[in-house]
Amino acid sequence: MALLVRPQEHKGILSLPELADAIEQAFRDWGRDPRMNMPRAIMSDWRRLAVHQAAVPSQGHVGLKGHTRVSLHEGGTGGTYTFGKYHAAGILWDSDTGLIDAFVLDNVVAPPYWGAADMRTAATSTVGTRALARANAHTVGILGSGRQARSHLMAVAAIRDIRSAKVYSPNPEHRTRYAEQMIEELDIPIEPVDSPQEAVAGVDIVLVCTMPRKPALLGEWLEPGQHITSCYGGQTPTDGRGHPTEPSGRDLDDAVLTRSDVIVINSRQQAQDDFQGDMLEPIERGLLTWDRVHELSELLLGQIEGRTSDEQITLYKNNGAPAFADVVTISMVAKKARQLGIGTEI
Fold first, then answer.
1. What percent of the chain has pLDDT above 90?
2. SS3 label, residue 60
3. 37 and 143: one domain?
4. Torsion angle of C-alpha atoms 184, 185, 190, 196, degrees rounded to 10
5. What is the pLDDT of residue 81?
């Protein structure tokens, strides 16, 4: 028998801290055995299909998650695209028996509940932020006011003693609404501000939670001791031959990379496979070299140094959660569902 869990059934079933701990363990396992994770495969035009597959020994599962996102096409051929709804299905196999163990369905829904995919992204960012941000970080500046901005502030508040925050979004109504909602959620002062520079000034942690066509964060705004977490992967659309069809989106300018003393991403291979501009463009211009770009698993296993002083600027780029983060998430959903008697055995 396999368990089927629908999106409305796993609402609120996981906590960010427990998921972050499980994903951190999976990063360590991957660092020891790279075979357990495959880079995500994406078919992408206005109909996007992505497949993530991995083994997760710590959870006793191998599995995959596939998701679609059909976008709205405006302006005819060659026009612009707007992301549509996200729908995902995960399949888990028992790693000992090889039998199908569970199916987990997911989609993106409105707060106060974030779908498993959003929680997975924030939990992955938690791992990198926890490893690099100063232990005495108390203030946060957020660029963006959507789902990821909400879940990322909640994630940071779970690992640091956050006492205040500022938020910038180009839309004044959005940033005001975000501040009101997160004040109610976290019971800390949150100020909507009129510029991204103001959001960054004087804070300990900067969260960049946007989907930009041009950089949202400029390196000239950064201050000593700050930590930056960016959750934009930046996968660039390609043609049938794997060639980029348009410039890569970026949320960080070159100066953010050159000013950062420590740069950590999830996967160098994913950055190259997806033509991610935040890494590739400064490297192509000779401003950055790959030997300065480290993987999170290397940091967690002590193979590289992370932050070594409170004056350093550190950057964690969550450049597309590895497949094992998806499999960990759906594995934990399935296990919790069984414990609570949720879902349907089929």
1. 71
2. coil
3. no
4. -130
5. 44
| Displacement of CA 160 from its chain's centroid (Å) | 18
Say which DSSP state 289 is in.
-
CATH number of the domain to which 94 belongs:
3.30.1780.10
The answer to whether residues 12 and 61 belong to one domain is yes
- Residue 135, pLDDT > 90, answer yes
Instruction: Out of 4-13, 20-29, 45-54, 78-87, pick the least confident.
Output: 78-87
CATH of the domain at 233: 3.40.50.720
Amino acid letter, residue 300 = L
How high does pLDDT run on average in the chain? 88
Name 340's Cβ contacts closer than 8 Å, sequence gap at least 6.
13
Task: Tell whether 282 and 337 lie within a shared domain.
Answer: no
Q: How many domains does the chain have?
A: 2
Q: Please state, in angstroms and rounded to a whole number, the distance separating the CA atoms of residues 135 and 332.
A: 28
Element spanning 123, H or E: helix 116-132
Q: How far apart are CA 139 and CA 185, in angstroms?
A: 16
* Shared-domain flag, residues 164 and 310: yes
Q: Residue 204: CB partners within 8 Å, gap ≥ 6?
A: 133, 134, 136, 137, 138, 139, 140, 225, 226, 227
Greatest pairwise CA separation for the chain in angstroms: 57
Range of the domain at 91: 3-116+323-345
Same domain, 284 and 331: no
Residues with Cβ < 8 Å from 17, sequence gap 6 or more? 126, 158, 159
CA-to-CA distance for 189 and 162, rounded, in angstroms? 10
Compute the distance between CA of residue 183 and CA of residue 187 in angstroms, rounded to an integer. 5
Residue 232 backbone dihedrals phi, psi, to 5 degrees: -100, 115
Question: Taking residues 248-266, what's their average pLDDT?
Answer: 93
